Amino acid sequence: THLPPPPPPPPSALTASMEDVADRAAANERAHVLRRAQRYDALLQFAREWALWDTSNAYVYELVAVAAAHGGKLASGAPRTAAERDRLVVRALTSVAEIAPKDASQLNRAGYVALAVGLQREHGHAFATPNATAAISTPGDAAAARAFYAWAVRLFTDALAQRDDNVNTYRGLALAHTAAGAYAAAADVLHDALGHKFNPRYGDVRLVLREEVAYVLREWRRAAPTDAVAEAKSAALEQRDNAPLSLIEAQRARITLSWATDANDVDLHVVDPFGNECYYGNPRVRASDLHLYSDQTQGLGPEVTVAGAGAPSGEYHVGVKYYNAGPMGVSQGVLTVYEPAPLRIVPFSLRPTDRDVLPMLRVRVGAAGRATTPPTSPPPFNFELPPATTAPPPPPASTAQPGFGR
After folding, report:
1. Residue 305: what are its φ and ψ, rounded to 5°?
2. For residue 79, is the peptide bond before it cis, meaning its omega torsion is within 30 degrees of 0?
3. Do residues 292 and 237 lie in contact, with contact meaning Cβ atoms separated by under 8 Å?
4. DSSP 392
5. Which helix (H) or strand (E) holds 336?
6. 117: closest CA among 138, 89, 139?
């Protein structure tokens, strides 16, 4: 199955200034276009201007964090260094906690963004572009990564304190602990989730959680292969939660989708190297051992697609589709790639007008297993970027917001 590429955005959407934006809907539209086009300088400038008149909108601060994390600069040239970018990202994420301290959904979302930035700082991959296989910075800044993991833990913990019935908050907190190397803490979070009685709309979420316990314990053993104490503790936790490593041993790829807005339905689409599409209408692709085994039509996800032992090596294209827009309209979601390593987090936003499958990232499965036969037809998703255009003009100096100016 091959999907037609979406049309490129009109040049005016890339060049319009804040003066051309009359309301939040129009601002959302332009931010979406800039984000998809990887115009991070323009996105940072635009979000900074937007924040001046929409101070209670958490999404504006997320845009500041995303743009700064991907190297966006203001007209003044700031932020100039990685450390300055990190300070701006932290300021943006803590702004979310300040304006919405009791909004579990926004705190949860900020936690995932903080986790994504931490993984970016550790491994050097982009997380907010349709071409998210490209490295954008030098990996290996462990200190910066740890700081963002700590922020993610704090934000997820605050979210759980406000609302403990969203399984994806437990999952995010466990991932943040895992990324930080706190494997026992991660397993305990998932154990707490397994003891919670979630709404039936979450489907077989217990299997998802057990798999993720196994993932945590496997990462623990990989990190400390000769540590007998860690081995004994992880074995005990494996037995405690009935999470044997055999649950995930055959998974060559594992991709999950969750979203933050209730009553919406967002669908996960994965296309294998042969061009076969795995989604709710074709949940099992035997040719490549792809399987969508958790399809959620209401609630908050997670949806899960795995590539089993028979999956061919090659590039898998991952997209999402806004199948049903509920009363809240815009939906925010998170893609998580557990396998192949390293862990990747991709936060995204969808508009009610996004009715086609939107490309999100490409996952490359390694050389083990069957050889890949190159597809004979065009790629299923269009990852090409719109043509570059002139950047929008900077705002007057009097509109500068000191908090985001440096």
Report:
1. -125, 130
2. yes
3. no
4. P
5. strand 331-339
6. 89
Contacts of residue 77, defined as CB under 8 A and 6 or more positions apart, other chains included, come to: none
DSSP letter at 396 equals P
Burial of 19 per CB tally in 10 Å (0-12, 13-18, 19+)? exposed
How many helices (H) and strands (E) the chain has is answered by 12, 10
pTM of the model: 0.85
Q: For residue range 58-90, what is the model confidence (pLDDT) as tens digits?
A: 999 999 999 999 988 888 888 888 899 999 999
Q: Are 72 and 88 a contacting pair, CB within 8 Å?
A: no
**Cα–Cα dist 216/179, whole Å:** 10
CA distance linking residue 127 with residue 120, whole number of Å: 7
In this prediction, residue 372 carries a pLDDT of: 41
Q: How far apart are CA 235 and CA 217, in angstroms?
A: 8
Peptide bond into 302 cis (omega under 30): yes
DSSP code of 370? S
Q: Which amino acid type is present at position 50?
A: W
pLDDT digits (tens, 9 = 90+) for 28-38: 889 988 988 88
Maximum CA extent, the chain? 63
- Phi, psi (deg, nearest 5) at residue 129: -125, 160
Predicted local distance difference test score (pLDDT) of residue 20: 53
Tell me the pairing of strands 265-271 and 277-278. Answer: antiparallel
The two structure tokens encoding residue 128: 């907010």
* Residue showing tokens 């990685």: 82
Residue-wise pLDDT tens digits, 364-378: 998 654 434 434 444
Q: What's the rounded Cα separation, in Å, for the pair 279 and 354?
A: 17
Show the DSSP H helices in 54-125 as ranges. 58-69, 82-99, 104-123
347: nearest Cα among 163, 106, 186: 106
Q: How far is it, in rounded angstroms, from Cα 292 to Cα 7?
A: 28
Cβ proximity of 213 and 243 under 8 Å = yes
| Beta strand 284-285 pairing with 290-294 | antiparallel
* Residues above pLDDT 90, as percent of the chain: 56
HSE on the CB side for 107, CA within 13 Å? 25
* Chain segment 144-179, per-residue pLDDT in tens: 999 999 999 999 999 999 999 999 999 999 999 999
